[in-house]
Each structure stands twice: as C-alpha cells, then as structure tokens.
C-alpha cells in the first residue's frame, strides 16, 4: 500500500489534488493548525494538526508518527505537497516496487526537466515529490525544520536499505500555486 501524505495550508488546492490521486492509494491530508477546516472539500480524510509552518516539516513528521503506529512497515509513504498533483504515469511505474527507497526524475509544470533520478540523494538533487520510502525504513528519521529538509531526510533514509532508481519523469515541481 502507498500512503500519500499532503501537508496542507492551501485547502483551495485539495480538489485538484484529489483528481490525481490513484484509487489504489490511501490519501491523508495533514491540516496546518492555522487553516480553517471549513475550507476542506467534503470526502477528504483530514487530520487537524497542532503544528504548522517550517515548509510542512512538522506535518510530515506527525504523519510519519501516525503511520508508524497505524500502517504496515512494508507500506510506502509518499509526500505530496499541497501545491502539486500526482503525475499521470507515476502509479503504474511504482506500484510493483519492493525496495526500501524509490526515487524518480522531476519536471516543471511545462514538462521541462528539473531533477534527474539519483543513486545518491542529497540536498539539491532530490525533492519531496520525487521519492517514496517504506514506513519501516524511516525509523527515527524525521524532517528537520529547514527549507532543505527533503534532501536531508532523503539522504538519511535511503542509506538504511535497498534503493530503486526509476529513470523516468514521474513528478512535477510546484504544479499548483
């Protein structure tokens, strides 16, 4: 199972995100404490958090804590920011993966390449939208309260297990605003 986690402070984008979520995945929105719940479209699974800010890092960490208790350690977590959508080819490319850490290449909204898939994730060559990781692989790793937290987190967790690199463009960078 793939759990798609969206840290959210822009509920106006959730309807667009919902249209791109594969039915085979579980989607959970972690609502920033400052966001009004009345703005959430009906039928979306939401957890209101006491956290917010720091580029969504506290919301991602709360989601990790939640999934480590409620989901299988062999399930994946994929973080989809609230300014993004799922690439139409993504699920087909990742659905049969078994590795602990899986990453792929990223494009801008217009289709121009932004980041390549990488054998060695680190700050500057990976984005939150361009990887997923098994919940059991994460362990005590968490997102730091920095702008570069996605690269730091990816660099830490990919070293803990097996890695698959998919050399296809399977995600967008800031598709929505």
Description:
The chain has 177 residues and is of the alpha/beta class. It has a single domain (2-173), classed as Spore Coat Polysaccharide Biosynthesis Protein SpsA, Chain A (Alpha-Beta Complex). Helix content is 23%, strand content 26%. Strands 1, 2, 3, 4, 5, 6, 7 and 8 form an eight-stranded mixed β-sheet that branches. The mean pLDDT is 92.
Q: From the 3D structure, determine the CATH topology.
A: Spore Coat Polysaccharide Biosynthesis Protein SpsA, Chain A
What CATH first level would be assigned?
Alpha Beta
- Euclidean distance between termini CA atoms: 28 Å
- The CATH homologous superfamily is termed Spore Coat Polysaccharide Biosynthesis Protein SpsA, Chain A
CATH architecture: Alpha-Beta Complex
- Shape, principal axes of CA atoms: globular
Percent of sequence in beta strands:
25-35%
Structural class: alpha/beta
- Per DSSP E runs of 2 or more residues, the count of β-strands stands at 8
Instruction: State the share of residues found in helices, binned by percent.
Output: 10-25%
Radius of gyration, in angstroms, nearest whole number: 15 Å
Question: pLDDT average, as an integer?
Answer: 92
């Amino acid at each position: 199972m793939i759990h798609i986690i969206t840290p959210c402070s822009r509920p106006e984008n959730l309807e667009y995100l919902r249209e791109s979520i594969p039915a085979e995945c579980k989607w959970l929105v972690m609502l920033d404490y400052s966001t009004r719940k009345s703005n959430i479209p009906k039928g979306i699974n939401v957890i209101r958090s006491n956290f917010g800010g720091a580029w969504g890092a506290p919301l991602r960490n709360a989601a990790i804590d939640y999934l480590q208790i409620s989901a299988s350690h062999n399930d994946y977590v994929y973080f989809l920011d609230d300014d993004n959508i799922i690439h139409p080819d993504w699920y087909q490319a990742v659905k049969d993966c078994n590795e602990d850490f899986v990453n792929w290449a990223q494009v801008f909204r217009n289709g121009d390449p932004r980041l390549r898939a990488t054998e060695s994730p680190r700050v500057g060559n990976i984005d939150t939208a361009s990887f997923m990781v098994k919940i059991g692989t994460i362990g005590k790793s968490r997102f730091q309260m920095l702008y570069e937290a996605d690269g730091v987190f990816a660099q830490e967790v990919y070293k803990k297990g097996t890695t698959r690199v998919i050399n296809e463009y399977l995600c967008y960078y800031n598709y929505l605003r």
